């Protein structure tokens, strides 16, 4: 009877250790980076989550809150554009930020999700008049520090 109980406890402990190892290995493939406080929109807050998939592609998820509406900026703009600096020191337009107001809140929120084969080392957001622009303007709204994956 004591041996059976010992075996059950041992199996539970080993199962817990195995589950913890799996969780740690999954977490080790992702990185979360916060945006720096902006002098242009100081209330804006956000994070970038980057994960590497099995094909060595980089999944980039951005969540932002307390953004200013682009039409209220000085000068007014049409859209927010997300830029990525790659490990080869290239700056790429990776897309347009989706923004919305919550039903029960006046806080403007933004989300962005993309996948890239290039390794990001820095993410920043600018306010622009054209979503297809190839080079960032000088109105940087939010930026991360350079990071390592």
Short description, anyone?
By secondary structure, the protein is α+β, with helices and mostly antiparallel strands. Helix content is 17%, strand content 41%.
Structural description of this entry:
The radius of gyration is 21 Å and the shape is elongated. It is built from one helix and nine strands, in the order H-E-E-E-E-E-E-E-E-E. The chain is about 15% helix and about 40% strand. The protein is α+β, with helices and mostly antiparallel strands and about 150 residues long. It has a single domain, classed as Immunoglobulin-like, CATH 2.60.40. It has one helix at about 1-25, and strands at about 30-35, 45-50, 60-65, 80-85, 90-95, 100, 110-115, 120-130, 140-145. The chain starts with a helix and ends in a 6-residue tail after the last strand. The model has no long low-confidence stretch (mean pLDDT about 85). The longest helix has 26 residues, at about 1-25. The strands form two sheets. Strands 1-2-3-7-6 form a five-stranded antiparallel sheet, with no helix packed on it. Strands 5-4-8-9 form a four-stranded antiparallel sheet, with no helix packed on it.
